[in-house]
Design a protein that fits this description.
Blueprint (H helix, E strand, L loop, with lengths): L14 H6 L16 E9 L7 H20 L3 E5 L8 E9 L2 H9 L7 E8 L13
Length: 136
């Protein structure tokens, strides 16, 4: 019998092929400075039936520690909890990575990934973003 999460693709919502189309997004050409891409990730966790409360608490503790590490490394920028239904585990995360391949490495390093599906949306700057410097 397969362990939790081993019976599905790591990025079941978009699949490994879809994430690879962004692998070169944000890559610098010879004339450009390196660009860090931002990604909005909807992370939905499905705890397998029969999982003990002790196992759940252990993986959640490891997930919190890993999230702190990723934040310190500049990969995890923000986390939000959207409105949830009873028993639902869903989180929205803003991540930064050089490209889709690095994002996949970051997401795969998170302990809850074994029970989670991720929906990745690559983000690009909007010309009217108030956080950007004004253009003359």
């Amino acid at each position: 019998m397969a362990g939790p999460g081993q019976d599905r693709e790591p990025l079941a919502s978009i699949g490994p092929v879809a994430i690879n189309q962004y692998a070169n997004a944000g890559k610098a050409t010879d004339q450009e400075a390196p660009t860090i891409m931002e990604y909005l990730v909807t992370m939905t966790t499905h705890v397998p039936e029969g999982t003990s409360a002790e196992s759940i608490e252990g993986i959640r503790t490891r997930e919190a520690a890993r999230a702190r590490e990723l934040a310190a490394q500049g990969h995890l920028l923000r986390l939000w909890r959207p409105p949830l239904q009873p028993g639902e585990w869903r989180t929205l995360g803003l991540f930064a990575a050089d490209d889709g391949a690095q994002l996949e490495e970051v997401l795969a390093s998170m302990p809850l990934r074994v029970w989670r599906t991720d929906e990745v949306t690559p983000l690009s700057p909007h010309p009217n973003d108030p956080a950007l410097p004004p253009h003359p």
